[in-house]
Amino acid sequence: MNSFTYTRADDVAGAVRVMAADGKARFIAGGTNLIDLMKENVERPTRLIDISRLALNEIKSTADGGMRLGALATNRDVAYNEEIELRYPLLSKAILAGASPQLRNMATVGGNLMQRTRCCYYYDTATPCNKREPWAGCSAIPGFNRAHAILGTSGNCIATHPSDMCVALAAMDALFNVTGPGGERVIPFAQFHRLPGDTPDIDTNLQAGEIITSVDLPAKGFAEHHAYIKVRDRASYAFALVSVAAALEMDGGTIRQARLALGGVAHKPWRDRDAESLLHGQSASRDNFLRVAEALLRDAKGFGHNDFKIELAKRAIVRALGLAASGEGHP
Ligand SMILES: Cc1cc2nc3c(=O)[nH]c(=O)nc-3n(C[C@H](O)[C@H](O)[C@H](O)COP(=O)(O)OP(=O)(O)OC[C@H]3O[C@@H](n4cnc5c(N)ncnc54)[C@H](O)[C@@H]3O)c2cc1C
Ligand code: SF4
Q1: Which ligand number lies closest to the CA of residue 125?
Q2: Nearest ligand to the C-alpha atom of residue 166
Q3: SS3 294
Q4: Quick one: which atom of ligand 1 is closest to the CA of 112?
């Protein structure tokens, strides 16, 4: 047993203050990831700061035409919010592709952004893992790596980010509002999660003591032309082998703007703006979709068991773009 102190935060300032005073403390929201990690002895916090009662669960429109999701809004409340379903169906569908209804009832927006990898070696304290213990070694590179990354990997870690919600948020260029000992700041989606490099133990650019308070969705929701495809081993309750969020702005048969985010392939939701730009001003044809898929996967590298993901990702991209262009996902 590892003993820890439990504190319930009354407000954001108090939560930040307690966190800043104890480097080994952890915020707990829905607990669906953190408690599992504590049971497996992977996370050993000295203090849990319960933020679940903070008034951060509102989902509301913003003055600039977008929407704000409170960090403590549950995955269920976001996915079934009427305005989200209508204006941001890509986000709603990505969330509903994840986990199970019971988990989505508990899981929060902030917790989903911060959830740790599902690499089996990370959970198995009997095996070396650089994410769990820096410089211990990576068991996945020479081991069973079927679910692992093919893009943005390093010689120290090939883990993937497991979130579905984040793949849609990446395509939308969401913004994260955070509060810490130094005050408030905004982190653009692209700058939030990190690649493993030499520090796979650090998943995000959140600074010590900072709490996520909300997520802002820009006004453009791509409701008319979007698709979320998740390829996985089971139809539910399974993490993505590959997922694709496609969002298009169409002018007749011509693509004015294209956004593509991939899940299950990298340490963070993967965007490649150069590859996306190949579609701008082009017709919505299979050949053009194939071209962008090839470009997106040009630097992909398999590690044996996961080689199949490279072809799978290409096919999923072509399929998602086809569905998005046809407007089949329109609510
Ligand atoms: C069996 C199973 C299957 C799943 N399948 C999927 C899936 O298919 N797709 C998917 O996307 N997810 C899936 N999940 C993951 C699930 O969505 C996450 O566990 C959940 O989103 C985490 O949210 P939480 O509120 O419970 O976080 P918690 O467990 O409470 O916290 C997780 C981490 O986030 C930190 N944290 C929480 N809130 C904040 C905040 N506001 N600011 C800063 N740090 C914070 C905590 O300190 C902790 O480190 C699955 C989980 C399980 C157990
Ligand atoms: S891939 Fe990353 S998380 Fe998995 S064993 Fe290697 S270092 Fe650990």
Answers
A1: 2
A2: 1
A3: helix
A4: 21
Residue 87 contacts residue 223 (beta carbons within 8 Å): yes
How are beta strands 183-188 and 226-231 bridged, if at all?
unpaired
Instruction: Please report the pLDDT score of residue 329 as a whole number.
Output: 65
Q: Which of 115, 125, 138, 239 to mutate to test the pocket of ligand 2 (most atoms within 8 A of CB)?
A: 138
| pTM greater than the 0.85 cutoff | yes
**Which of 225, 233, 62 is CA-nearest to residue 146?**
233
Residue 316 in this model has a pLDDT that exceeds 60: yes
Counting from 1 in the atom list of ligand 1, the atom nearest the Cα of 210 is: 43
Note the pLDDT tens digit of each residue in 99-127: 999 999 999 999 999 999 999 999 999 99
Gap between the Cα atoms of 153 and 227, Å rounded: 26
What is the model's pLDDT at position 235?
A: 86
Ligand 1: residue whose CA is nearest its atom 52: 99
Q: Give CA–CA dist 233/293, Å, rounded.
A: 22
- Residue 108 CB–ligand 1 contact under 6 Å: yes
Q: What is the DSSP string of 233-254?
A: SSSSS---SEEEEEEEEEETTE
pLDDT of 63: 97
Q: 5 has which bridge partners?
A: 47
